[in-house]
Amino acid sequence: MGSVSADGKQLWLSVRYSNVVYVFDTRSGKLVRKLRVAQTGNYR
Predict the structure, then answer these.
(1) Tell me: the pLDDT tens digits for 1-44?
(2) What local confidence, expressed as pLDDT, does residue 29 receive?
(3) Which domain of life is it from (predicted)?
(4) How far apart are alpha carbons 33 and 9 in whole angstroms?
(5) Count of CB atoms situated within 10 Å of the CB of 32
C-alpha cells in the first residue's frame, strides 16, 4: 500500500506483514527513511 505526500515530495510505501513503512524522495528515488511501526490487530 502506498501514498504520496500532499506536496508530492515523498512516496510512502508499507509492506504487508512486515511492520515497516518506507519513505522515498520522489525526485531522486532514494530511500529517505525506514520506519518500524507497531502491529495492531490480528491480520493473519
Answers:
(1) 999 999 999 999 998 888 899 999 999 999 999 999 887 766 55
(2) 97
(3) Bacteria
(4) 13
(5) 14
Cα separation, 23 vs 10, in Å, equals: 6
pTM of the model: 0.78
Bridge partners, residue 22, by sequence: 13, 34
The domain limits of the chain are: 2-36
CA 37 – CA 4 distance, rounded (Å): 18
Copy the grid coordinates of residue 2.
502506498
The single residue listed with the C-alpha cell 504487508 is 16
Burial of 10 (0-12, 13-18, 19+ CB in 10 A): middle
Residues in the chain: 44
